[in-house]
């Protein structure tokens, strides 16, 4: 996958759609948005690292 690719993922039981911001050796940094205050507080809507499959 390339930077800018749209992806869906599950985080804490909720499905989100985000965009790949950066690629690492074994993971991606994905920017996403949420309206859930707990998710915003924990992840700051900035990104989450997900292991590549």
Provide the fold topology:
Elements: E1 6-11, E2 14-23, E3 27-32, H1 37-43, E4 48-51
Antiparallel strand pairs: 1-2, 2-3, 3-4
Description:
It is a single chain. This protein is 13% helix and 49% strand. The protein has 1 helix and 4 strands, in the order E-E-E-H-E. It has one helix at residues 37-43; strands at 6-11, 14-23, 27-32, 48-51. It has a 4-stranded antiparallel β-sheet, with no helix packed on it. It is elongated and about 30 Å long. The chain starts with 5 loop residues before the first strand and ends with a strand.
Order the strands across the largest sheet as they lie in space.
Answer: 1-2-3-4
Largest sheet, in brief, is: 4 strands, antiparallel
Tell me, what's the shape? Answer: elongated
Distance between the termini: 11 Å
Low-confidence stretches: none
* Beta-strand residue percentage: over 45%
Alpha carbon gyration radius: 11 Å
Helix content: 10-25%
Per DSSP E runs of 2 or more residues, the count of β-strands stands at: 4
Mean pLDDT reading: 84
Elements, N to C (H/E) = EEEHE
Secondary structure class reads mainly beta
Total helical elements: 1
Task: Give the gist of this structure.
This protein is mostly beta strands and 53 residues long. It has one helix spanning 37-43; strands spanning 6-11, 14-23, 27-32, 48-51. The longest helix has 7 residues, at 37-43.
Keywords for this entry:
mainly beta; 49% strand; 1 helix; elongated; four-stranded antiparallel sheet; 4 strands; 53 residues
């Amino acid at each position: 996958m390339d930077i800018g690719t749209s992806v869906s993922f599950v985080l804490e039981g909720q499905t989100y759609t985000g965009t790949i911001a950066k690629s690492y050796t074994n993971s991606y940094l994905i920017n996403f948005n949420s309206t859930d205050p707990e998710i915003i507080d924990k992840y700051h809507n900035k990104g989450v690292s997900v292991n590549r499959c």
